[in-house]
Amino acid sequence: MTKQALTKGQKEELTAIGKLYRNAIYNNPNVSKVLVDFSNGLKDLNGEISTTILSEILHFKTLVESRDFFCGFRNWIDELYDILLEKLPNTVSFTIDCRRKSVQSTVRKVIRNYLDGSSINLFDLVAFRIVIDSLDSKEKLEKYCYTIKDICNSFFQEKLCVLCTPNKQVGSDPLCKDYIEIPKDNGYQSIHLAFRTLENQLFELQIRTLDMHEDAEIGESGHEGYKDLVDQLVAEYISFDPKKVKIPHFRVFINNSIHDKIGLKDALTIN
Description:
Elements: H1 8-27, H2 31-45, H3 48-65, H4 67-87, E1 93-100, H5 103-116, E2 126-133, H6 138-158, E3 162-163, E4 177-178, E5 191-196, E6 202-209, H7 210-218, H8 223-230, H9 232-237, E7 250-252, E8 258-260
Parallel strand pairs: 2-6
Antiparallel strand pairs: 1-2, 3-5, 4-5, 5-6, 7-8
Helix pairs in contact: 1-2, 2-3, 3-5
């Protein structure tokens, strides 16, 4: 999708959506109220883009407000941690944490997917990340990532979660995005698995080594920097001045990543 490919109507609607988005971000004290204000604005706008993306914005709002969803995962992650501790060699250390996608990243990705003709539904609104480290060789560390993938597949399917087929196949396994086997153009590496719970909630599991993680966060494959390249069109419309945001704990870090925490991530981190 290029700037030239946008119709005049799409440009006008994206301009209106951007204005709604900035008003919601600037005038509300928390993420939930931002999403209420923004989704109501999309309903009133009633355009082709706004109507299409509204369902995923409302889904994101439900997720943000559902503390039961996150608390339920607390027990699962405790169990998974113990299983990994038992099955992995004692030379391997690991952490498990959770991140909720920021409002900024969610809105941009939903609109970008619409413009690209991709699925509007996002698997990664909530993502659990397992990061491993060891003095073992790089090859062994990558092998441990695949061992963890198999363990997680079995574990979450026992919890009656369904392994989802990704919107595109990356690597030889059709049920995951294997960016270790086939890194992204910017060098990003990780294994991504997507699951659906009985309550129809989607979540993503990411598995990577510490070197892969550091490179993704602050290195040449920095995820936010990569998204800036593929998001150029959407970023022109969906942008805001961070200094005007009133959400507590809102932060924009040096690498341009945005965190609009609602007090859940720390409670789900296990080291």
